[in-house]
């Protein structure tokens, strides 16, 4: 049994060394129809319809883009129900009963390497768009938008840093499927015209670096390098990764493409490979189940749409003393706390963390300045918090609240146990 005395580093070490459990056959999947980015949708299937794995069943509508909605199993449409998604909001989901046959849609066919080698930028971008590939590090931003830039791209950086505590799903993905990541990187380089590819990883992950270096030898016709980064938080923040990995500083508010860089999360890179090579949308993903209130922390490869409640059962359930728990979707620093485990796995679900709930009494701010000193983007979280309380939108703009990357450090270091990050997040929403 996992005891509460176990250190955070022990949890990460435990899950990354265990083999990944494959759980790709849930009885039901719940495919979210709307998201935080896409409020509207159309559903082209009705109750009772039979659908195939990889079949388009609808479309989400964002402000400046649309996303196809795919079935991740073959089976029958049952109903539209409400669930909580990985961002913590209640969304409408189509419930599909799995027939356990994995009957693929006719469009799911492999492309020969010779065909891929001669594909144009426009053709690769169109595939990434059609298959609905999004940023799997948590952002959920459509991947084709970045890839379709008209900027001169010299370097593609693949972010494999995974700096949040407790998380090791990217680590296991690299160990289990290194070739997929390298091939995905070459497709991105081919489409963007980049002459260099860089995989950024923490230098403390020596075993992972060995795997990557062995794979480089198989792709020696490409200019691919491993950047070994320092071990600190938030090293996985895109701008910090770029600066230490390739020595290019991207000011907050500046697009990386303006500096000749494309950045993708390692899971996104593997999904681009699946889309281009196998014509597959995102049907599965690696995620971590961890925390001091779950009996058996582990990494699981799951079908998108799986219930988080099932994954906790697969991890032997809650520990006996877990009478009051907190469920976090994502990392402990940047993740979202949800009311219960009735959550569905979406493409951007990196982890499910379950902790014994500890009530902290929030004290008045003592103006110690810890939040200011720890902020990686050099804003003043406590001043932003006070502006939020005053509903002072003018000051929020002057204080550049929109620069916040929501890393959670201000709340973590606060001696008064104030949820400072939440206030700054509200400030960003007030600005719009």
Task: Please give a handful of descriptors for the protein shown.
432 residues; alpha/beta; Rossmann fold; 3 domains; six-stranded mixed beta sheet; four-stranded antiparallel beta sheet; 17 strands; 31% helix; 22% strand; globular; disordered N terminus
Task: Sum this structure up briefly.
The chain has 432 residues and is an alpha/beta fold. Helices cover 31% and strands 22% of the residues. The longest helix is centred in the middle third of the chain and has 15 residues.
Task: Kindly describe this structure.
The protein is of the alpha/beta class and 432 residues long. It folds into three domains: 8-106 and 282-356, no CATH class; 113-278, Rossmann fold (3-Layer(aba) Sandwich); 370-431, no CATH class. The protein is 31% helix and 22% strand. The protein has helices spanning 8-17, 113-117, 121-130, 143-147, 169-176, 178-192, 206-218, 238-246, 266-278, 308-314, 370-374, 381-390, 393-398, 409-413, 420-431; strands spanning 21-23, 28-32, 40-43, 50-51, 56-61, 66-70, 75-84, 90-98, 155-159, 196-202, 224-229, 261-265, 284-290, 298-303, 325-329, 336-338, 351-356. Strands 1-14-13-17-15-16 form a six-stranded mixed beta sheet, with helices on both faces. Strands 2-8-7-4 form a four-stranded antiparallel beta sheet, with no helix packed on it. A hairpin with a 4-residue loop joins strand 5 and strand 6. The longest helix is centred in the middle third of the chain and has 15 residues, at 178-192. The model is unreliable at 1-6 (pLDDT under 50).
